[in-house]
Design goal:
This protein is 29% helix and 24% strand. With 331 residues, it is α/β, with parallel strands linked by helices. The strands form 3 sheets. It has an 8-stranded mixed sheet with strand order 6-7-8-3-9-10-14-13. Strands 2-1-4-5 form a 4-stranded antiparallel sheet, with helices on one face. Helix 4 crosses helix 5. The longest helix has 18 residues. It starts with a strand and ends in a 10-residue tail after the last strand.
Length: 331
Amino acid sequence: MALLEISNLKVHFRTPNGTVQAVNGVDFSIDRGEIMALVGESGSGKSITGLSILGLIPKPNGKIVDGRMMFNGASLLEKTEKEYREIRGKEIAMIFQNPLTAMDPSFTVGNQMLEIIKYRQGLSKKEGWLEAKKLLELVGIHDHERVLHSYPHALSGGMRQRAMIAMALSCKPKLLIADEPTTALDATIQMQILSLLKRINQELGTSILFITHDFGVVANLCDKVAVMYAGRILEYGETYEILTKPNHPYTKGLMNAMPETSIETLVDGNGKKRLKQIDGSPPDLLNLPVGCSFFDRCNRSLDKCQAAFPDITTKSNGHLVRCFNEEEVYV
């Protein structure tokens, strides 16, 4: 049985201009001890999916209008707010993209960690302080006293992100949602944070939902990948399958736009390499097309792509794709 199973998740937001269909029928599952990447452009619905799992969709304008979310055998959508508060942090935790805005600037890192540890684990102040030091040690921070007595703004970006991860791990959650945790960091610190997440997964058995727009950080970290566009999953499968045999034009486009991949690049008249871009813009979520949402940006589109949204097609090794064009030109 999967740790997390999401079926036909739909999340809408009411606005003065109409209803924004931010997530429009998402399906995926995460097994125990597995790392899954949710990949897509900004605005594709990745973060909203993560917030939905935590029950943090802004109300009253935001609402989960349909779907099923099963966590550890129980339905999350049937939980009361009180029951959800017991789950957050204790069983499902989240690492945000910018820890400086996610942490309280008026309290030291130690006070914030201590508050979480005391509330969740029922420890005394002395025991909680020792536990905080152990957690910082786990995430590679050895000068505990300095970090615990520092305010968030006084730490470097990498240190803040490590401290945020330590807070998220304070209750040993079964699932960790990492929402683009390396975007604001330089390349060296990025690799350190990714290695840390991998080690946490291996040593603690923590499942991770890794939200990103960057295929370059996925290859050595994730077991599975779900490619998201305009609120829908267009391709889903094992990481190796997706990276070596992308079957959806959007997946291929994302990979071509990343300098980290070995996919062929274009050469301009001066002999300089340049990346391929995906022409056009994502559709208006206030008025999604009837057919495939990628239709007007796709170089392989068929007439029927504009008339209907494609069903799921199963390829090898559980590789799923939503595309009418079955010509496998991506290898």
